[in-house]
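Record type: monomer structure entry
Structure origin: computed from sequence
Chain ID: A
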Amino acid sequence: MTKERKTILLVEDDSVDAQNLERVMSEIEIDKCAIIRADGLAAARQHLSTESIDAVVLDLSPPGVDPVNSVIQLLSEAPNLPLIVLAEEQDDNLERELLRRGVSEFLVKGEFDARHLGRALRRAIQRTSEQQMLQAILARDHFLLSASPAVIYTAEPHSPFRATFISDNIVDLLGYTQLEFTQTPSFWADHIHPADRARVFAHLGELN
């Protein structure tokens, strides 16, 4: 974990299990990790809506709990939050489904200690942080590309110099879509003005 203090939300309805998990979690850089306990999904969603939570540890073992629905409810409240689930036993099908739904880590109760849980939390938090940074970069790049008065593109450095990327303002400036340029290698060449064709191809030959 980073040096900043992390707040971990533990969702556990059983007091004994909660104490055991809190004991294990307290061994994870205790001076940098605050633990908040919620005794059910309703309380967990309340914490998520009112507090700054860095990660959630969710126990899936209480009787009558629908694991998939529980994950959906929590991630609907905080879609990008690192979520670690604790199961009573290994279930590969359930693990695949929960990971597909957005769960960060799937652990089996009784098969991990503070070191393993700490590693899972660090991975989940770091992965989410990197994804958020990537999303911010992509949003910035999209803004810069869409705000530019010029068309920005990349192309293969060899004949037929197929466009591999082209900014979406191509539609406003030329009336053609990005897909028309990127999916048809010769599309750009077919639309060069006849008077310019020889000069353009002569210069392109210097790139080979």
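Annotation 1: The beta strands are 6-11, 33-38, 55-59, 83-87, 105-108, 153-155, 163-166.
Annotation 2: The mean pLDDT is 85.
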